[in-house]
Inverse folding.
């Protein structure tokens, strides 16, 4: 028997050895010698760390009170305290942790709602976390079939300037603290949300960012050269004798981006590794390289220091160094993870920007090695193993090659975001041709990526990424067959990008917008509208909205009716349209057009008259309405989604095995064949706007098998001696078919 918690003991005094064993899983029955997986719970509530109050005096390194205040605010200092609470505890040895286990993760949570804190409208007196822990909301989620909520970034972000904090520069993905941002709620509200989720059979997924922080206390202490803090970051001190190599920092700024010429000079002098493989968020005159120089900063040693630091993303997001001798960056991240799982009660973590954790100088004089580096894999293995050790699981967002997703998943995160097939299914809808989607899915199968290890998602907070890194980089010189002709991978990526841009932006979709070189800022509904030839969102008719809803459900079927996690957003649930550019002019002025698709939404009519969220994000137009309205209507998007997910859950499709992606008789069709525990399953989808008919043929299908529609449970035919089945699909229709092998059907 496993350990059980005494219900008479208050949660506030539980120690790290307290544990709640989960029900015995299928894996546990087969391998009963393996310890049961333990559900994370709030185990550190007796931990009260002291924050030093702000003191009068100069905000500089020669003021000990200021330095001590920064240290009390730093994530590294908190990490030391959190880690000590777990050291030497028997609970750290009760879970297997070496290998990723996607099926175990999916058994805990197979359908995710991905929230975006600053876009969610709440009741006037409620916080984001309070709203997300609302009983009515979780009842609606349970009714639809949603079993997990990914909160998105809710902890303090941005920076510190002097004694004051500065705003986030990237939607709260520039973390500076383990404390919650008061704008989103409190730790108690987070814990209460976890308890409500558990009561409804769900879990909460939190975030850690192993790639960078904001310019908070940790970075300010690093600039002052205090203790281990410089070891957190990829930063190099430039001696005063070489300050002439550095650009001047304009008044009012604390750093300035290096231009390519300065980057090369510092590289030639041996200070930095120089140019990287690509410059994310490249903007002429704003961000031309991944390196910036700080202004002179006075340290407690009485000396002024200047640094050059790396930032893959924005200037306010200094990159973490995973191979500094102090291992300070690693300690910061691991402590943050333990806090979320052990103290707050979350059950899983998203690893953001975790593909850029290794940087190495090129031996050939070319760009430095900064993507797909073995150090990234090693660091991810450390993080993911630690999370599994305490009973949780992780998922990663890696927009890299399929090969890198495979290698990083062998010992790293349990699940990986599916960035490869998402632009492919958008391309299928936009063109009415699923050939490229079949190509990407088959490529993943051939390389060895199991679809059960992927998070198949509709919209999230980022743009619809179409970089197609797999084809544009590692496989640029490989030959693929597309539209009956051979084509190089690099040319294929260029072609698909051009077609997506033409079909979904410009005159065809003026409400969508390109986002730098990465993709298209859009909602799922606006991708569909452009695909359907609806270029004026203000003129949508009820018939147009029904057509959008039908195609939206088709995309949900694609993502849900295959093994793996299915994820969707609040924008999907309400059918949000993009904001007009003038509504977010201040936010997109630096080129970050993603703000047009991050409009505010109200899931439960928390504040029907609200025109914006509490974070001042304008409310987006909703095509489907709130969940309250939708769940009272069996024809609504949410109700139809419930039916799709019910069929999925009834037969365990989420943890099945994909065994075939057969050829089709019509270019708009996609057929997927899956092996379930006691049957086979076929997903048949029509991405075209015309009725299609033809045979579904796969050698994986057994002749004589009875075929049943999983949605209606009505018989639809039998697999013939050619291992095939005849189907007819209406425009943008999808069907999930259960295939009962002869012995089972008899």
């Amino acid at each position: 028997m496993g350990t059980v918690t005494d219900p008479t003991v208050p949660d506030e005094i539980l120690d790290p050895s307290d544990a709640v064993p989960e029900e015995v899983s299928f894996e546990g029955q087969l391998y009963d010698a393996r310890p049961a997986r333990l559900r994370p719970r709030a185990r550190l509530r007796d931990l009260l760390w002291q924050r030093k109050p702000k003191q009068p005096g100069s905000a500089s390194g020669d003021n000990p009170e200021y330095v001590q205040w920064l240290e009390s605010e730093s994530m590294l200092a908190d990490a030391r305290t959190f880690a000590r609470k777990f050291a030497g505890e028997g609970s750290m040895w009760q879970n297997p942790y070496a290998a990723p286990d996607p099926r175990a993760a999916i058994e805990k949570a197979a359908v995710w709602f991905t929230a975006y804190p600053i876009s969610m409208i709440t009741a006037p007196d409620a916080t984001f976390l309070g709203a997300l822990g609302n009983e009515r909301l979780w009842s609606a989620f349970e009714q639809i079939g949603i079993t997990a909520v990914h909160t998105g970034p809710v902890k303090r972000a941005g920076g510190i300037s002097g004694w004051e904090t500065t705003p986030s520069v990237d939607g709260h993905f520039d973390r500076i603290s383990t404390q919650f941002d008061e704008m989103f709620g409190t730790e108690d509200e987070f814990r209460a949300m976890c308890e409500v989720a558990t009561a409804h059979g769900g879990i909460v997924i939190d975030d850690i960012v192993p790639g960078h922080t904001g310019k908070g206390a940790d970075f300010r202490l690093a600039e002052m050269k205090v203790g281990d803090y410089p070891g957190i970051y990829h930063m190099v001190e430039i001696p005063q004798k070489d300050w002439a190599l550095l650009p001047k920092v304009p008044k009012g700024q604390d750093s300035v981006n290096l231009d390519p010429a300065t980057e090369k000079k510092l590289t030639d002098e041996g200070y930095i590794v120089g140019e990287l493989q690509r410059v994310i968020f490249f903007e002429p005159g704003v961000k031309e390289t991944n390196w910036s120089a700080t202004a002179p900063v006075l340290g407690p040693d009485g000396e002024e220091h200047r640094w050059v630091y790396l930032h893959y993303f924005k200037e306010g997001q200094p990159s973490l160094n995973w191979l500094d001798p102090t291992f300070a960056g690693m300690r910061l991240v691991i402590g943050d993870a333990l806090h979320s799982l052990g103290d707050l009660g979350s059950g899983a973590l998203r690893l953001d920007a975790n593909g850029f954790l290794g940087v190495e100088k090129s031996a050939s004089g070319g760009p430095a090695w900064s993507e797909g580096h073995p150090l990234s894999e090693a660091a991810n293995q450390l993080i993911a193993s630690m999370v599994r050790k305490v009973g949780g699981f992780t998922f990663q967002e890696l927009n890299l090659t399929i090969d890198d997703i495979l290698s990083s998943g062998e010992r790293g995160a349990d699940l990986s975001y599916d960035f490869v097939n998402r632009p492919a299914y958008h391309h299928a809808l936009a063109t009415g041709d699923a050939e490229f989607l079949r190509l990407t899915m088959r490529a993943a199968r051939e390389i060895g990526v199991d679809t059960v290890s992927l998070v198949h998602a509709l919209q999230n907070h980022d743009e619809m990424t179409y970089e197609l890194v797999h084809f544009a980089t590692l496989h640029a010189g490989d030959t693929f067959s597309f539209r009956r002709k051979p084509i190089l991978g690099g040319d294929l990526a260029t072609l698909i990008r051009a077609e997506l841009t033409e079909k979904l932006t410009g005159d065809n979709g003026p409400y969508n917008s390109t986002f730098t070189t990465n993709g298209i800022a859009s909602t799922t509904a606006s991708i569909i509208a452009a695909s359907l030839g609806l270029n004026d969102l203000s003129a949508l008719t009820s018939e147009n909205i029904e057509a959008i809803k039908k195609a939206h459900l088709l995309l949900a079927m694609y993502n849900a009716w295959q093994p793996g996690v299915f994820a969707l957003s609040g924008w999907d649930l309400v059918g949000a349209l993009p904001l007009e550019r003038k509504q977010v002019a201040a936010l997109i002025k630096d080129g970050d057009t993603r703000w047009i698709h991050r409009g505010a939404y109200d899931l439960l009519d928390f504040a029907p008259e609200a025109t914006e969220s509490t974070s001042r994000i304008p409310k987006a137009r909703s095509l489907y309405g709130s969940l309250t309205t939708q769940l009272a209507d069996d024809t609504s998007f949410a109700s139809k989604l419930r039916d799709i997910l019910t069929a999925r859950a009834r037969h365990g499709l989420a943890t099945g095995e994909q065994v075939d992606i057969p050829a089709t008789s019509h270019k708009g069709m996609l057929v997927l064949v899956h092996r379930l525990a006691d049957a086979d399953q076929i997903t048949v989808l029509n991405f075209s706007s015309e009725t299609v008919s033809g045979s579904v043929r796969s050698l994986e299908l057994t002749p004589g098998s009875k075929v049943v529609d999983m949605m209606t449970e009505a018989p639809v035919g039998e697999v013939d001696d050619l291992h095939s089945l005849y189907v007819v699909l209406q425009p943008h229709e999808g069907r999930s078919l259960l295939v009962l092998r002869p012995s089972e059907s008899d």
About this structure: The chain has a mean pLDDT of 91. The longest helix spans residues 542-560. DSSP finds 23 helices and 31 strands in the chain. Residues 129 and 562 are 31 Å apart (CA to CA).
